[in-house]
C-alpha cells in the first residue's frame, strides 16, 4: 500500500454519455476551464510519453474529488458540477503532475524536473512555453489526421521561420525582432506570453501553414493569423497546390501548356496540378523547360541559407541557371532573377519540389520560372521520342518477332514429324506390296506367342531372337530389331526381298510387326540352326 501511495498516475475520466445530448456534446461550446489545454487536445494526444489508463470513474462530489487529491482538471463545465473530462491524481509523494500551465512534468524523488511536455512541442505553444533552437512546431496533416504534416516553425540563425518539411526546406516566412502581444523573441528563444484579456490562449501552426493565435472568448475561440500580414494571400506554399499558379484575379490555374499539366481536380483548382508525363533521369537528353515569365516563387527571398547552397546560385547567367537544373536530376524547376545593375547576371534558385507559383502584376523586372518537363512525340509533334516510349516500342517489336519465330519453329517441327510419320507409314503399308504372303502381327500378340520374350535363342548385331509357338502349334523364331533409326531401311528391304522367297537353304519369313517403335520379323523355326545371324 505504501508503494501504491507513492505512485502518481494519470487517470482518464470520461463524462457520462447520458449528458452528451444536452450537457456535454462535442459540438457544444465549453463554458469554463480550470486550466488550459496541454499543447491543445490534438497536441496532448501526440506527446511522446506513455500513459497508464485506469478504469474510468465519475465523481459527483467536489468533496470526494478533494479527498482523493485531484489537483488539475481539464475542460470543466460550470453547469456540470464536479464532473470533468480529464484529470490527474497526485498524492503527497507525487512524481508526475499536470501543472496549471498545461505542462505535464515528471519529477524525481528530490522534486527536480527530469522531463516535461513543454520541451517536446507538437504543433502548439501554450503561454509560458518556449521554442529554442533545435526544437520546432510541426503542423498536422489535417484537423482529422494528427500525423506530421508539411509545415514547421523553428528558431534558426537569429530569427524564427516557417518552412516546408522538404530536403532542403523551403522557407515562406521569417521574422526577427518585433513587438508582439502574443509572444516574445530575444533572438534565441521564442516564448508564448500569458494572455491579458482572455482566460485561455495558445499559438498553433495550422495544416495549411498559417500561424494563428487562439483566444477563448466566453463561448468560442477567436483567431488571429500572425503570418498573414507579411505572407499575404498568395505567399503560402500550398495556397494553390503543387505546380499551380495563383493568378492576379485570385484564382488557381495550371501552367498554360496543357500538353504537360492538368488539374488534379477539375472541381477544386486549389488542389494543384499534376504532370502528364513523369520526368525520368535516364532520359535527360529529352528534358526541356516551360518558361513562365513574370512569375514569382514564395521561397526565393528566403532560401539563401548555406544548407541549400547547391540549390542557390548567385552571379549566374540565365543559361547557366538552366543548365544547372538540367544536370541535376532532383531539380524540378529553376527560378531566375536578373540583377539590377544590368550585367546580364542574376540569382538562381533550383527547386526539387514545386509548390504554388505566383503571377506578377507585370510591373518592373520580375522573376522567371522554368519548369522542367519530359518531351514525347506523342504529346508534341516533331519532338524526339522519349526513352520510355522507345522502350515500349522496342519491347512490342521484340514480342512480335518472338511470336513469329515461335510459330515458324513450331511449323518446322510439325513438318519434320509429318515427314517421319510418312516414312514410318511404309512399314504399315506392306500388305499392298506382298498381299497374302506375309502376316502382320501386333506387338501384344507376339508377347503372348513368345511368353513375353522369355525364351531367347540368340543375339546378333541387329537384335535378339526369341522362340515362340503359334496357336496351330507351329514353332517360330521372332527377331526383335534394336535401334529404329539404323534398322528401319534394312527392315523394309529384308521384308520385301525375303518375304516372297522360299528356298531350301533359306529360312522362310512368315510375318512382321511394325508398331510404334517396335520392329520384329517372324521366321519359321530352324531346328538345326540359329537366327541370331539371320
Automatic annotation (TrEMBL):
One Gene Ontology molecular-function label: ATP binding
Residue span(s) of domain Apple: 281-374
Gene3D superfamilies in UniProt: Phosphorylase Kinase, domain 1 (3.30.200.20)
SMART domains: PAN_AP
Signal peptide: 1-27
Protein name: Uncharacterized protein
Keywords: ATP-binding, EGF-like domain, Glycoprotein, Membrane, Nucleotide-binding, Signal, Transferase, Transmembrane, Transmembrane helix
Protein kinase domain: residues covered: 451-534
Amino acid at each position: 500500500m505504501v508503494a501504491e501511495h507513492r505512485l502518481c498516475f494519470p487517470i482518464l475520466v470520461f463524462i457520462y454519455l447520458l449528458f452528451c445530448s444536452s450537457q456535454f456534446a462535442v459540438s457544444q461550446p465549453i463554458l469554463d476551464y480550470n486550466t488550459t489545454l496541454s499543447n491543445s487536445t490534438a497536441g496532448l494526444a501526440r506527446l511522446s510519453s506513455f500513459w497508464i489508463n485506469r478504469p474510468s470513474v465519475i465523481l459527483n462530489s467536489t468533496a470526494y474529488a478533494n479527498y482523493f487529491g485531484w489537483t488539475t482538471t481539464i475542460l470543466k463545465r460550470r453547469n456540470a458540477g464536479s464532473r470533468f473530462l480529464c484529470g490527474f491524481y497526485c498524492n503527497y509523494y507525487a512524481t508526475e503532475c499536470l501543472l496549471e500551465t498545461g505542462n505535464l512534468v515528471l519529477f524525481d524523488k528530490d522534486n527536480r524536473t527530469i522531463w516535461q511536455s513543454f520541451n517536446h512541442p507538437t504543433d502548439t505553444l501554450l503561454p509560458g512555453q518556449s521554442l529554442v533552437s533545435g526544437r520546432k512546431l510541426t503542423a498536422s496533416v489535417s484537423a482529422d489526421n494528427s500525423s506530421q504534416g508539411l509545415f514547421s516553425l523553428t528558431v534558426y540563425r537569429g530569427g524564427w521561420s516557417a518552412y516546408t518539411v522538404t530536403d532542403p526546406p523551403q522557407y515562406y516566412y521569417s521574422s526577427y525582432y518585433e513587438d508582439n502581444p502574443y509572444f516574445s523573441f530575444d533572438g534565441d528563444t521564442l516564448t508564448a506570453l500569458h494572455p491579458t484579456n482572455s482566460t485561455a490562449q495558445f499559438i498553433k501552426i495550422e495544416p495549411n501553414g498559417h500561424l494563428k493565435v487562439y483566444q477563448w472568448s466566453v463561448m468560442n475561440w477567436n483567431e488571429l493569423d500572425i503570418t498573414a500580414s507579411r505572407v499575404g494571400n498568395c505567399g503560402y506554399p500550398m495556397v494553390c497546390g503543387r505546380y499551380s499558379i495563383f493568378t492576379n484575379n485570385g484564382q488557381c490555374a495550371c501552367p498554360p501548356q496543357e500538353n504537360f499539366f492538368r488539374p488534379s481536380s477539375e472541381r477544386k483548382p486549389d488542389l494543384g496540378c499534376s504532370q502528364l508525363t513523369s520526368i525520368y533521369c535516364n532520359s535527360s537528353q529529352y528534358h526541356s523547360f516551360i518558361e513562365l515569365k513574370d512569375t514569382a516563387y514564395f521561397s526565393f527571398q528566403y532560401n539563401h541559407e548555406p544548407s541549400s547552397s547547391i540549390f542557390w546560385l548567385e552571379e549566374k547567367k540565365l543559361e547557366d541557371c538552366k543548365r544547372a537544373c538540367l544536370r541535376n536530376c532532383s531539380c524540378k524547376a529553376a527560378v531566375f532573377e536578373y540583377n539590377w545593375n544590368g550585367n546580364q547576371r542574376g540569382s538562381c534558385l533550383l527547386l526539387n519540389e514545386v509548390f504554388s507559383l505566383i503571377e506578377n502584376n507585370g510591373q518592373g523586372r520580375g522573376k522567371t520560372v522554368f519548369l522542367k518537363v519530359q518531351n514525347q512525340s506523342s504529346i508534341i509533334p516533331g519532338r524526339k521520342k522519349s526513352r520510355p516510349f522507345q522502350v515500349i516500342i522496342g519491347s512490342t517489336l521484340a514480342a512480335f518477332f518472338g511470336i513469329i519465330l515461335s510459330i515458324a519453329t513450331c511449323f518446322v517441327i510439325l513438318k519434320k514429324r509429318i515427314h517421319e510419320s510418312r516414312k514410318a507409314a511404309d512399314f504399315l503399308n506392306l500388305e499392298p506390296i506382298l498381299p497374302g504372303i506375309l502376316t502382320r502381327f501386333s506387338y501384344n500378340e507376339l508377347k503372348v506367342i513368345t511368353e513375353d520374350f522369355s525364351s531367347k535363342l540368340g543375339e546378333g548385331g541387329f537384335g535378339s531372337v526369341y522362340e515362340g509357338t503359334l496357336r496351330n502349334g507351329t514353332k517360330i523364331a521372332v527377331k526383335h530389331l534394336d535401334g529404329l533409326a539404323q534398322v528401319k531401311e534394312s527392315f523394309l528391304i529384308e521384308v520385301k526381298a525375303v518375304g516372297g522367297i522360299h528356298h531350301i537353304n533359306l529360312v522362310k519369313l512368315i510375318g512382321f510387326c511394325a508398331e510404334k517403335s517396335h520392329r520384329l520379323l517372324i521366321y519359321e523355326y530352324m531346328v538345326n540352326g540359329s537366327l541370331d545371324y539371320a
